[in-house]
## 1
Amino acid sequence: MSEEQAPAWNSWRPFWTLLRREVWRFCKVSAQTLLTPIITASLYLFVFGATLGERIAVVEGFSYAQFVVPGLILMGVINNSFANASSSLFVARYIGNILDLLVTPITATQFIFAYTLASMLRGLLVGVAVWGISIFFVPLPWINPVGAIAMALLASFLFAQFGIIAALYANTFDALSMFNNFLILPLIYLGGVFYPISILPAPWEGLSRLNPLFYLIEGFRYALLGEGDIAFGTAFGAAVAMAVVLFGWAAWLIGRGYKLRN
């Protein structure tokens, strides 16, 4: 992948072209990429909002539905940001049309950010849709809206990078699905989406704090509700650190052309 600078007026054309293509790709199959995860999240909201939401409580001052909804919103953001980057890049490698892209004057940075921004857009669209549906079940106080938006952006950015990394390391569709089925989903469910980590006995509470998704979920929940197992600043700092590490990892792989030419 060329890192040479194109003429100033033309240097970002490959980036915008790739970004438009990636956005168009997931919009063209929106029933699969947007509607399906929204329906899945709606079923969760029905179960926890209309049935259990007012009958149990795990955080004083909030219903169980209010506790769960922030995690469901972020779960949609995370899953779809990862799915978009990983599936798109892996399929491009698998069918070989990634080679057509590599001969264009696009830089490694532009390559990463085109895939990243398209994936973030898909993840955030699903997250906003889930939040919109949740309004019919339970209100959220939005204590720190700027912090909530920042955490959602960080989560989508972070998992877009992880999707790029997974797409480069996976050699088969089964290997790619393992990242989601055996890593992301267990970390989400064990990261405090459906229960507060503080109610766990030792040593499970301490072990749960090693889960990187715990910081994303708790930071987002704290920004929305003003309550959480850790302070917002701690969660935000951990999320920024993880995002920097994954971006550096993805940039290193793309810069080397790792598995892009074979």
Note: Residues 13-21+31-256 form one domain.
## 2
Amino acid sequence: MSEYDAVLFDSDGILVEPPPAETQSTATRAAFHEVGIDEPARTHVQAIVDGVTVGELEEICTAYDLEPETFWEARERHDERSQLEEFERGVRGRYDDVSAIVDLPVDCGVVSNNHHSTIEFVLAYFDLERAFETYYGREMTIESLELKKPNAHYLERAIADLSAESVLYVGDSESDVVAATRAGLESAFVRRPHCRGTELEATPTYDLEDLHDVADLVRGDGRRRA
């Protein structure tokens, strides 16, 4: 029997392959072009791709005399479109081991820093809707930048939906581990190829190889703590 009432999963890097940095850079440059900036500074493009804060976004827009809301609307639209096109063209796909967690004996959910509408697309496109009782991505607003992980906001909303007390969060980044800790959850860090050698400052409850390990853990077949 599982010691968890529920399991929450990140999406990019856990359920599906993460978006390539160049794809995100191209989408960001397209957004700049749409609002009249043909040659944005490389450092500004990189800052947005790396996870811009509200303050950084406002400074970048001030440098080009742009309204932050206007630029951000364009950026989010181009970013989402580029992601959906990559899924549809087969450039990005679902990890094979996701099949190991679609029938877990506990309620499951998805919590991601990606757009809520993108997560909705992913679950439908890869036929994963039945595997998850709830899911959260962030809204396409500037305000959502302050609510994404490592903020525990969306994790807490998912926990409330599932009425769960003992919850495991599965992710592939430091911010996932920190967000889980802030939400009072145990965490599992999955070492996908893109994070195989990552050295974490925050310590996850479990350090695992793949989703088969997660499934074994949740079913009570294995317990490998970090």
Note: The first strand starts at residue 6 and ends at 9.
## 3
Amino acid sequence: MTDITGIRRKLEKKLKSERYEHTLGVMYTASSLAMRYDGDVKKSLLAGLLHDCAKFCSGREQIQLCNEYQIGLSESERKMPALVHARLGAYLAEHEYHIHDREILDAITYHTTGRPGMTLLEKIVYIADYIEPGRQEIEGLTLVRRAAFSDLDEAVALSAASTISYLENAGRDIDPMTVKTYEFYSKK
């Protein structure tokens, strides 16, 4: 049995306090969404708790760790280091926190960009990260929060659209997987 309390203690020491508070918010939001959609509450707690476990260091250091651990990165991840923590986080969840459930590891891997055809757990963590109570108010957040508890697929489409819009307006690169996620869920 996985020791959630032990993992929490480790993360509290490893992450900056704001990141740790965000992590707890995602963990509890994910468990609430799991209850709403008859998902696995324990898996949701674990995936939410560990989703940002690699954010204890800079993007450059995350890339170095990926190279060291031989974790393959996409071209987008190399261009946009803010994405790297998801793939590295799944690796750390498995190797440092001893999570071997592929569904939890995939939820961590795809919590930033999403992907077409996500599992329930992947959608839960993706949305929980976006809507957790401590999240800074951004345009469209209220709509995503409202949709999250009535239509999870709609919430995914709204979240991906909001992310794309934000990145476009900021003149930043957009990961192609986020676009694919939007396209897939906006047609449902």
Note: Residues 4-186 form a domain with the Hypothetical protein af1432 fold (CATH 1.10.3210.10).
## 4
Amino acid sequence: MIRVLIVEDDPMVAEINKRYLDSIPGFVCAGIVSDVSEAWAFLETHPVELVLLDIYMPGKNGLELLTEIRKEGKSIDVIVISAANDIPSIKKALRLGAVDYLIKPFEFERLNAALKIYRTEHEIMKEQEELSQEELDQLLLHPNKTGADHRQLPKGLTQETLKRVVDSILEMKGERFTAEALANQVGISRVSIRKYLKFLTGIGFVSIDLAYGTVGRPVYQYYVNEFNLDRIDPYL
């Protein structure tokens, strides 16, 4: 689970953001604080991966907290959620490494898209030690944050075949499968199916385990990651 700290001085807004957060699989609200001092004290004593950060607050503003996080080298990501829509604030937040910036008031779908994109990037960075240029481009060059973007497939994969592969996997209704079994069901070679499975594993749509039987060599088994079903949407 991705642990999130909400930094917001308006209790009603903080509660709304928490409800939004709780409705999206993969996230848990680690805490709610109302100013920068409370936020820093919380970050010093609790593990947090992501901060939803307001800018306009009593005392120090949110950008000062973001500056301190970067100065101390903490591996914490920040999504700014603020009424501050002036260019200097936006530029400063982005220069300090904010992964997204939402201007109040915003629609739930905008926050939903931001968190889902963040979850995808977080899981890929956590699960893989290295990235190819194509995989890195998919993380860095998505056209927008609205969830309506369409991403390019790696070279050698086609959208038509990918859809057949995904449909066949979903038809298994969560059961584990081997590359050979899936290749037979889709009607393509095992070499080709492994390319598609490598891609689907890379984006977190499927996961892989090594299964040890009573005899013979261990077999790689794949299964759908139920929390990441939406990760395939931009490619179909």
Note: The chain is about 45% helix and 15% strand.
